[in-house]
């Protein structure tokens, strides 16, 4: 089954590499709209938050803009990328990031499902000499998991399952290596034992407490990977925001992170991933 899945995925990737991006974008948008991709989930999330009230957006218009961007993420994540397109992905304040990392012998770089987080995370190693680790949850399908690992690590990102992050940090600290650890921190926690609650987009929301625990234990500095979306495919500027306040023992970290992300979402809500069941846990 894994061999068959990998064959199908490789065929899809091949098609994505030979068909022009502009054509793929139109096709992908059309398919998503015709199938009503995650429409009920997006509608529920949209109406559950302050975004709807603040922007007074008609859901039909918002859904179309969000689907348009989801199609863009699919094309950018699965298609090939040229040298010209690579130049459109820029990073700001890399020196600040490196200094923050070295001063605490390691750094937690929080990311979110805003803009194209896949590109932002996988391209960071091209812009720094420091080791960059991406913490991820392995896919159940091993063929699909390996394929995504290959694509994400192509430019130097080292991927580690969440359960191995403690071991990796200790090995690096014992070897005197200052490294950057990327955690995408806005997803719904899997376990009720790993939850911290905070206000987010007007809703009491469950967040994963892993970043707080790591900061408390290792006293790492914390930064946020703030993705700004450009008009063209593959056009992003990733700003390294070091204004996150972890507080004493990390207890303010999640609240500070959620406030920065909330501000970013209110600026341009269509670029956040509204299609996942973010609020399936209730307080």
Q: In words, what does this structure look like?
A:
The protein has 283 residues and is α/β, with parallel strands linked by helices. The chain has one domain (2-271). Helix content is 47%, strand content 18%. The protein is built from twelve helices and nine strands. The protein has helices at residues 2-18, 21-34, 39-48, 50-55, 59-78, 83-86, 94-103, 117-123, 142-152, 165-174, 210-218, 253-267, and strands at 89-92, 107-111, 132-136, 158-161, 180-184, 195-200, 203-208, 221-229, 236-241. The strands form two sheets. Strands 1-9-8-2-5-3-4 form a seven-stranded mixed sheet, sandwiched between helices. Strands 6-7 form a two-stranded antiparallel sheet. Helix 9 links the parallel strand 3 and strand 4 (158-161). Helix 1 packs parallel to helix 9 (142-152) and helix 2 (21-34) packs across helix 5 (59-78). The longest helix has 20 residues, at 59-78. It is globular, with a radius of gyration of 19 Å. It starts with a helix and ends in a 16-residue tail after the last helix. 35% of the residues are buried.
